[in-house]
Each structure stands twice: as C-alpha cells, then as structure tokens.
Design goal:
four-stranded antiparallel beta sheet; 19 helices; mainly alpha
C-alpha cells in the first residue's frame, strides 16, 4: 500500500497501539458518562417536575467546563498531560462511586444531585483540554483529521450505546446502576494511560507559571482571527442548539408520556445519527465547504425543533433524533478541526480549552435560558423559539469563516537569531530572566512608493507580536527622514522575550520576508534590545 493511500485512510490512526488503546478505553469511559447523564436526567425528573431544575442538570454538567477549562488548559500546557489525566480520572472515579452509594441508599436530593454532577463536570473540565491536546502526540500530523473523526465516531458510538443500556438498567436493575457503571468505567482509561510512555520534551527555558500561562492563552486567542471566527460561529450555534438537550427529558415525560427506557432510546437514536453522520462526514465534506456544512446543518436542526414542538409522535421523534445526531456531529467536528488547525503545539491545550469554554458556556447559558422559557410558556413553545433564534444566529455569524488555519504553517521557524546580552557578573547573568520590561526596536528604510504596502504588512506583524506576548506595539515614522520607520514593542521580561522567540512560526517568517523585501539598503533592518533596570 502506498504512503498516500495510508494517509488517505480514515482508519490510519489505529496503526498506533496507544491511540487504539486510548480510543477503546475512552469509548468505554464515555459509555459510562452517557449512562450517568441519562440516569441523572431521569432521576431529576423523578425528584422534581420543575422544568428549570431539570434543565439545570445540563447546566451543572457543562458550567464547570466554562469555569475551569482555561486554567485546566494552562496546567496541561505546563505539566505532564499524562499525570494530570491519571490523577483527575482517579478522583472522578471516587466521586462517581460516592454518588452511586447515595443514590442506592435513596438519600439523594435535587440539590445534592446537582452538586455531584457539578463535581464530575469539574473533573471533565480538567480532562478535556489535555485529552484533546495529546492527540497530535499519538499520530503523525497528516492523520490528525482522521484521528479527530475517529474520536468523534467513538464518542458517538458511546452516545448510541450508553443511553440505551442506561434505560434498560434503570427499569430492570434500578436507578443506581448507570452511576455504578460510570464509576467503574474510569478504571479502563486509567489503565490505558498507565501503558502510555510519551516522549518528554525538555525545554531550555523555565516552565510558565499558571497565571501567566492563562493570560498568554487569552492573548493568543484575542489576536487570532481564525480562532475568533470559529468561536463566534460556535457560540451562535450552541446557544440555541442546547435547547434540544436541555428539554428532551421533559419532552419525553410530559408530552410523549414516556419512561426512562424511551428517554434512553431517544438519546441512543441521537447517538446512532451521530455515528451515521461521522461515517458520512468525508462524503459530505467533499461536497460542502465548512461554511455551508454548518449552515445546512443549522437549517435541518430548525426543522427538527419545529417538528418536535408540533408533532408528538414517538416514531417521528425517533427519526428527528437521528437527524439531530448527524447534524450535531457534523457541526461539532467542523468547529473542532477549525480550532485545531489554528493552534500551534505550544498553546494547543489552552486554545482548545477556550474553545471548550465557548462550547460548554453556550450550552450552560442556553440550558438556563430554555429552562426559564419553558417554565414561562411550555416545552413546545420553547423549542419553536429556539428554532427561530438558531436561524437568527446562523444569519448573524455568516461572515465568520471557518478553517482559516488550514493554509497556515504554524510549525516553529527558529529563524530569529538568539539575542546577545553582555553581563558583568555571574550574579547578573542569573538575574537576567527577571529583567523587566524589555523593549525591542527594529529600524526600516522604506521607499515612498512602498509605504502603504509596508504599513499594511506591519500591522499584521504587530498583531502577531501581541499574540506571542508583546503588551505594546507601534510603528513610528521619523520626522526629518520620512523613509525611516521604527517598530517598537515591549515584552514583560527577558524570559518572556525569549519565549517570544520560541513561538515564532514559519508563517511569521514568510510575513517578515515580505517586509524585509521592502527594506532599502545593503544592511538588514537594525534590531536593538533594551532591558529595564
């Protein structure tokens, strides 16, 4: 088989034994999580009939990721991702075991249930960025999209299998059974992680501190057009699409007069639709670009919501659940790939954490909103309104282009020369990293006819400088020599400036080549470094 054929195969990542082990154990663990979600949703409907309390189950699941994903991503970029995942999975297994015992004893209350859901959601918040960020370490770069798609297939196979099993166990064994399975399922992924021995990359610079790493992540996203476009489009979609997840338990119980088995079956239909959607995804992507794929999926979901609101026929609801699952995985995988492509390795976990914040924050806020709407009106009207707002959001976000990072080369370029520093003593050398702030100036000579092009390129470079850590940047023109321009920017410390050097990509090198081509004279632009005393 040729190399090209191997790269083109959607199953190529399974050549990696550790990817296969983590994929299989992850699917088992996700089955447990899906069973827990069905059990929690149905248990809450048994404890209370308040639509807001039922919707808060979704909020308690997703809100922790909105609150904690960014610090979790910063930690994952700084410490060993493997150790972080193992420790958090052990803690989640303990919490899930305690919840199982309380449910089995029958002493659970709505408030206590929400507290345990929130605790497990917090664990998921610390797992998710690290788990997504390790994927490029397991397989070659050219197999990344296939690996993301396979993870999506595993996730949605779990979504199809888990709820159906949960519904059967609740009606035959008892409400505690899904929670017990979830507690045990964490052991599988812990075992797979113990088998993984990743290569350690030892850098020549000290590790970032967590607060600074968080600010770096936020700054990178702020000055990244590809990420901002992806996040705005994701928010516009998820804020309305969350209505279906939040209100489905009540739709089953009050409108369809169903039981836990029907609820699990419908969730299973969503999972089945997601699996079919993942299988069809390569063909769909060959026909539709990411923009059109998200737009068409949103229009189909509007139809799903309207049909669910107006026609309470079980067989029809099963069909629309399959459609919902397919559209959901198309949109989710499209946003995930768009975010991955816009992130270099050094900040991948933090960037994905912010994407997860947008995703789960939108889901949490949406669940609260649609729970309140359903309380004031009714479930069917809430679904109809969400269909309308989904259409509005799709229209407003139509100019946010996805997959902008696909054409970018974000690999480290290492083309910046190491800056030279003269020190008088060993003590001064040891204190060099803490010297603050650092100002860098670059002097250019530009012909009058090239000024407009030069300034356009420089403003792009200025955005990149800020993305990598500069907290001020400007370009100045000399008054008595109008062909002389001086760029200046400031980093927080000498250590941060050295990190700035490490973060420069091949894409940045090409931009700087275009700028330097406009520079006049035999000597390159003069670069000077100034250190705070």
């Amino acid at each position: 088989m040729s190399t090209t054929a191997i790269q083109a195969s959607p199953w190529a990542p399974f050549k990696s034994k550790i990817f296969s082990a983590l994929w299989l154990s992850g699917m088992i663990s996700t089955i447990g999580v899906r069973m827990h979600e069905v059990g929690a949703g149905w248990l809450m409907t048994s404890l209370t009939s308040d639509p807001l309390m039922v919707a808060l189950v979704q909020t308690a699941t997703t809100l922790p990721i909105f609150l904690f994903a960014l610090p979790a991503g910063a930690i994952a970029d700084v410490v060993s991702k493997r150790k972080l995942l193992i420790v958090v999975q052990i803690l989640m297994a303990i919490v899930a075991g305690i919840l199982t015992y309380i449910v089995y004893k029958g002493t659970i209350t709505p408030a206590l249930l929400l507290l345990f859901i929130f605790a497990l959601g917090t664990g998921a918040a610390f797992v998710a960025p690290a788990k997504q960020a390790i994927v490029p370490q397991l397989i070659p770069k050219e197999e990344l999209q296939s690996a993301i798609a396979l993870n999506s297939v595993g996730f949605n196979l779990s979504r199809a299998i888990g709820p159906a099993i949960a519904g059967i166990l609740i009606t035959t064994v008892g409400i505690a059974a899904p929670f017990a399975f979830n507690a045990v399922s964490f052991l599988f992924i812990i075992g797979a992680l113990l088998l993984w021995c990743p290569f350690r990359v030892i850098g020549d610079l000290p590790k970032e501190r967590i607060p600074g790493a968080i600010m770096t992540g936020l700054r990178y996203v702020r000055y990244s057009p590809p990420l901002k476009a992806t996040f705005w489009k994701a928010f516009a979609f998820f804020i309305s699409a969350s209505a279906f997840w939040a209100l489905l338990p009540l739709l089953v119980k009050t409108e369809l007069q169903g039981d836990a088995k029907l609820f699990g079956l419908l969730i299973g239909m969503i999972g089945l639709g997601a699996v079919l959607g993942a299988i069809l995804l390569p063909r769909v992507k060959s026909i539709l670009n990411p923009q059109r794929l998200v737009t068409i999926s949103s229009l189909l979901l509007m139809v799903v919501f309207i049909v669910s609101a107006s026609l309470q026929i079980k067989e029809l609801i099963m069909l629309v659940c399959i459609i919902f699952g397919a559209c959901w995985v198309w949109v989710l995988s499209t946003f995930n790939v768009s975010a991955q492509l816009a992130l270099p390795d050094w900040i991948r976990a933090r960037g994905l954490a912010i994407y997860l914040m947008v995703f789960f924050g939108s889901m949490s806020l949406g669940s609260i909103v649609w729970g309140l709407v359903a309380s004031q009106f009714d479930i069917c009207n809430a679904l109809a309104i969400s269909a309308f707002t989904l259409g509005v959001g799709t229209f407003l976000a139509r100019k946010c282009e996805l997959n902008q990072g696909k054409v970018l080369d974000l690999s480290p370029s290492t083309h910046w020369p190491e800056p030279i520093v003269v020190v008088d003593s060993e003590c001064e050398k040891n204190m060099l990293h803490e010297r603050s702030p650092v100002m860098v100036t670059v002097e250019y000579k530009i012909d009058k006819s090239d000024v407009k092009t030069f300034l356009s390129l420089m403003y792009k470079l200025g955005r990149v400088r800020k993305q990598y850590g500069a907290y001020t940047w400007d370009i100045m023109q000399e008054s008595d020599q109008p062909d002389t321009f001086v760029e200046h920017f400031m980093d927080a410390s000498w250590l941060e400036h050295l990190r700035h050097h490490k973060r420069v990509t091949s894409e940045d090198r090409e931009l700087q080549k275009q700028i330097h081509a406009l520079h006049q004279g035999d000597e390159p632009p003069k670069v000077r470094h100034f250190l705070g005393s």
